[in-house]
Amino acid sequence: MKVLYCSWYENSKKDMVKALDILADEVFVIEHSVKEYIGDNKEVEYEVIDILSNGIDVVISFDFLPMLSDICSNYGITYISWIYDWPNYTLFSKAIYNKCNKVYLFERDGIKLLSKYGIGNMQYASLAVDTVRLDRQLGRDIDNTSYEYDISFVGNMDPDLKNVLMNKDVPSYYEGYINGLVNAQQKIYGYNIINDIVDGEFVDKYLYAACADMDNIAVPHEHVLASQINKYVTGVERVNLLRKIADKYTVDIFTGSSDLDIANADIHSGVDYYSEMPAIFRKSRINLNITLRSITTGIPLRVYDILGAGGFCLTNYQEDIAQLFKDGEELVMFTDENDMLNKIDYYMCHEKERMEIAVNGHRAVKKFDYIYVLKHILCID
Question: How do strand 284-289 and strand 266-268 relate by DSSP bridges?
């Protein structure tokens, strides 16, 4: 099998290339920005077409890139998109209807949403982690970890509605209405009310720049707006939960977000995915995952990253986490703010039990190694 892998500088490129080199007979790799792939960029288009002349069997990318789909449709080649981000706005493009597409998505509710609009060739696939690389980098002796942090959170957040909606002139009525939805959503885990309530009323004036070409979107625009509001919910929620924790414990936050107002927390700049982030997860007593609210059922990459590094993971409830991991044995889930705080209190005082869960989680996540997941995606026995 000859594979063309089209990267857009995503974090997981090295792990993907390593796995493809093992599984495929020959691998070609190109790399461009997302804007270059989704724009009318003839230089990139010609580069892809030229590589296809080598007898490429499959083109693959993280996330859906309409240009690649259109090229593969014209040349009769399978295009595989492994969805890395949800929502993935380019997945709403009209190119999603091309027959060449095979889309693998970790968010089951996303599959249901797209299926409502006649979008086929959608299958479930988890995200993945390179446990071999992490074991080599950090060692396997999790039991004797020397901790540097009590509670850590790695991720971004933007609690400013105007930034998230990309509009500086949101009327107070709409801002109040959205904030009411946000306050209600923060109290509910396992069900998303934003997706049900947001409708076309907001779209015409308050949907900006979420996609490069809104006229080319295959689903109603309110789904895109709901995704933006969910991003805002997540930013507000992350800030509020971290404030609560920082009132009692030492919290280290590693983020690309600026101007965060979280008293008592140690706020650091963002960290490198390969060289820095794994060590933070290993050397933290508790690693917190607060899932993007648009992801209603699936397991975000952060959970795999934490477990792969041998870290203890405390995460909000997600349906797929409950199905694929053992709560209280391989990681720990919380169902609301009080539950989170109570479990932090408990596991900060029960190191042996916390360590056992970290070891078990590290063992359990190995079944989501890149080799295993890509065998499923590439239909390799």
Answer: unpaired
